[in-house]
What we know:
By secondary structure, the chain is α/β, with parallel strands linked by helices. The protein folds into 2 domains: 2-118, Rossmann fold, CATH 3.40.50; 130-238, 3-Layer(aba) Sandwich (Rossmann fold). It has 13 helices and 8 strands. The strands form 2 sheets. A 4-stranded parallel sheet has the order 2-1-3-4, sandwiched between helices. A 4-stranded parallel sheet has the order 6-5-7-8, sandwiched between helices. The longest helix has 18 residues, at 183-200. It starts with a strand and ends in a 5-residue tail after the last helix.
Amino acid sequence: MRVGLFVTCLVDLMRPSIGFAAIKLLEQGGCEVYVPATQTCCGQPGYNSGDRAAAKGLALKVLDEFEDCDYLVAPSGSCSGTIKTHYPDLLADEPGLADRLARLTAKTYELTDFLVSVLKLGAVPGTFQGTVTYHDSCSSLREMGVKQQPRELLAMMPGVRVAEMAECETCCGFGGTFSVKFGEISSRLADNKCRNVEESGAEVLALGDLGCMLNIEGRLHRRGNSTVRVMHVAEVLAGIERA
């Protein structure tokens, strides 16, 4: 099974350990992992900002780069959601691409969903011991249907106890440019999220989207909390952390 890993811009630039963790987990499931060297962005920032021309160019690039893979997998509900749910709208005026696009969207998965639903992993290599709480990012939950998959994988780790925080499905306030355009609302949402994380008593906050991770981690630090570790769920599952 040849799996194309869509690394995502943020993982590439801010936290490559997430990409290495994803590869480790995919290989654990017997996959041949292919990482196109030319990949860049899925086009979501442009699409969300109304720059359809730029977003369309990137979407066509992704289509070319991942067409020969059996699956496209991303450690991000945001990027996988853009490809799977928004590319059909973005490329609707390209009827000649309909079949190719349908094949791409059908084989696009968020990482934890792929590990559970396709690979059906029965074990993970991570050895973390402690209490973990999980934040459901908006795109993963609402666009990709990811809810129980990361929790099912965390439950495979004997030393992990999952403590659900209050309002785990509520937005952290990031939302890409939302956090810039509506700073006060974003800050309030982030503070609420941080409070719920702290009240859960968890040592680790696990998430599936790096945008949310950076937002919540930064807010925790500004609140004076350097105790809670903020990790991508793939890092927890694979036992790989940033250097």
